[in-house]
Design a protein that fits this description.
The complex is a heterodimer.
Chain A (H helix, E strand, L loop, with lengths): L1 H4 L2 H30 L6 H17 L4 H24 L8 H22 L15 E3 L2 E3 L3 H23 L1 H11 L1 H6 L4 H25 L9 H14 L5 H21 L7 H13 L14
Antiparallel strand pairs in A: 1-2
Helix pairs in contact in A: 2-6, 2-9, 2-10, 2-11, 3-4, 3-5, 3-9, 3-10, 4-9, 6-7, 6-9, 7-9, 10-11, 10-12, 11-12
Chain B lengths: L1 E10 L2 E11 L3 E6 L6 H8 L7 E6 L2 E2 L5 H6 L2 E4 L11 H10 L5 H11 L1 H5 L10 H13 L5 E5 L7 H17 L3 E6 L2 H7 L2 E6 L2 E7 H5 L2 H6 L6
Parallel strand pairs in B: 3-8, 3-9, 6-7, 7-8
Antiparallel strand pairs in B: 1-2, 1-4, 4-5, 9-10
The chains are: A mainly alpha, B alpha/beta.
Chain lengths: ~300, ~240
């Protein structure tokens, strides 16, 4: 057992999963926004980064790790809600490219602002979990208490989001607002409020990914989330942008493929992992990407 | 009680409704009849705040509904079953019904029980996705979803559309009994004038956005000119 866990294959699987859950979180957050408002939020990663930087400045003032996590997520949610109200709301009913342009611009602004305020050097926070890998029989297993925390936290967040959408009154209203906004309004659902809440939830999920990255050995820097966003976007696109499960699966697949390419081929080619998955998905299931279910309009 | 006076609605340069006035009372079915494009659906959409009213007034009791948000009109007790029924196919029967009850103060469990008693077929299908329902079942679900919130007013847009004649006639009977037992103000928009006039108390005939007749249903049903020129009921 110890030999198996310490094998090169399992090294790659564990490292791939640890990276993949971050992509899954970002992909899930993109899907939540896409479903409710049909906006692809290019600033998703940057907004999460900025929220986490604010959380980290609170740590400088002496708050504990968990408070930093909570503050980052809450600030992230606030940003999400504000972005929807201020930047996106005036663009509903306009061509779909408009919100994309606005959010790409916003992405640049946030990253520049973060670099101006906190400089572009890497910052990190120390989680209350050891980052030292486990050993078994003298061999290293690519798993530390922190990596376990990272994976468990991501799974808990995903399950909570799924449960919220599936089993709560709020979730039912969120789904109805996304599926049939006019019908939902006729039933008394405050759809515009639901859209804001959708953006808040999504940005909160994104902030969790950024907090995990800031807690890792490599830390967080202002443009750090760009790569995560690209992988998360590909993951969401592979899943068809409408399916949370598809997005999560896509994120894990990209994490694993990057790790295997890095290990068997070359580290510089690792980002190809996502592209390969995207190309394969496009060949097998092109309708998975950007297309809506025609049935929906009935 | 719904009271509409001199209502005008424009779609760009097109005048969809011109000086439309009508009154619909509790416990009565007011049928709104007319050909395609007469403005029937627009009238219901104006009541629910889904289209911009150019001029005129719409009152529910003493309250003006003009410029009120759609969701607030719904919360005041206006149940609107849209054309094509608006059942959400990706949700289950029960989720659709729950959604109908959320914005009102009714007890959801009791409401579900009541609707399943009223429409037993919905109880049998409660866990099924609505995309799998037949046209008749969807219409029943759409009605139940509006009724679960215990509205004062029920706006029905072409409920008979796409239904077999026998299903239509049963549906019309249940609309009448619901209207009378719950003292509902029902506005029934129909192209199928024959079925609607059979149960309606009053009828309004629209033609190109204007009211050409407004009277007791029996009077409209026996007016040969109306039947021939506006209702397509020529024997």
């Amino acid at each position: 057992m110890a030999n198996f866990l310490a094998s090169p294959f399992m090294h790659n699987v564990l490292a791939g999963l640890a990276q993949g859950v971050l992509y899954s979180l970002l992909a899930l957050s993109l899907v939540i926004i896409w479903q409710s408002t049909h906006v692809l939020n290019f600033a998703q990663g940057a907004m999460a980064m900025f929220a986490t930087y604010i959380g980290m400045t609170e740590i400088d003032r002496g708050v504990g790790y968990w408070w930093c996590v909570i503050i980052s997520v809450l600030v992230g949610m606030l940003f999400g809600g504000l972005a929807e109200r201020v930047l996106i709301r005036p663009l509903y009913g306009k061509p779909e490219i408009n919100p994309i342009v606005v959010m790409v611009g916003f992405l640049g602004v946030i990253e520049a602002l973060a670099a101006a305020i906190w400089t572009s050097t890497t910052r990190n926070i120390t989680p209350p979990f050891s980052q030292i890998y486990f050993h078994a029989g003298g061999q290293v297993i690519l798993l530390s208490p922190f990596v376990i925390f990272q994976i468990v936290l991501a799974i808990v967040i995903m399950l909570s989001i799924a449960a919220l959408f599936r089993f709560t009154k709020l979730g039912l209203q969120l789904r109805a607002s996304a599926l049939a906004p006019e019908v939902a309004r006729l039933l008394g659902v405050r759809v515009s409020r639901m859209l804001t809440i959708g953006w808040m939830l999504s940005a909160g999920v994104g902030a969790v990914a950024a907090v995990i990255i800031a807690s890792g050995t490599f830390g967080l820097f202002p443009t750090n989330m760009d790569g995560i966003f690209v992988a998360g976007f590909i993951a969401a696109a592979v899943g068809g942008l409408e399916s949370p499960i598809g997005a999560i699966t896509g994120g894990l697949l990209i994490g694993l493929s990057e790790q295997f390419i890095l290990s068997y081929w070359s580290a510089t080619l690792a980002p190809l992992g996502g592209i390969i998955i995207l190309v394969v998905a496009l060949m097998i299931r092109p309708q998975g990407i950007f297309t809506k279910n025609v049935e929906r309009r009935v | 009680m719904i009271r509409i006076e001199n209502l005008c609605v424009n779609y760009g340069a097109v005048k969809a409704l011109r000086d439309v006035s009508l009154q619909a009372s509790p416990g009565q079915i007011t049928a709104v009849l007319g050909a395609n494009g007469a403005g029937k659906t627009t009238l219901l959409r104006a009541i629910s705040g889904l289209v911009t009213v150019q001029s005129g007034t719409i009152h529910l009791g003493e309250r003006s509904l003009v410029k009120m948000a759609t969701e607030n009109i719904a919360r005041l007790g206006v149940g609107h079953v849209p054309e094509g029924r608006g059942v959400i196919g990706e949700l289950t029967v029960e989720e659709n019904l729950r959604l109908g009850a959320l914005a009102s103060k009714v007890n959801i469990a009791e409401g579900l029980e009541t609707q399943y008693r009223q429409f037993p077929v919905l109880g049998d299908r409660r866990k099924k996705y609505c995309a799998t329902l037949s046209g008749g079942e969807r219409q029943m679900l759409a009605m139940a979803r509006a009724l679960i919130a215990q509205p004062q007013v029920l706006l029905l847009d072409e409920p008979s559309l796409g239904l077999a004649p026998q299903v239509t006639s049963e549906l019309m009977k249940s609309i009448l009994s619901l209207c009378e037992s719950k003292n509902l103000t029902v506005i029934l928009v129909e192209q199928n004038a024959k079925s609607a006039l059979r149960i309606a108390h009053n009828a309004v005939v629209l033609h190109l956005g204007t009211v050409v007749a407004s009277d007791h249903a029996a009077v409209v049903a026996h007016d040969d000119d109306l039947r021939r020129y506006y209702l397509g009921l020529v024997q």
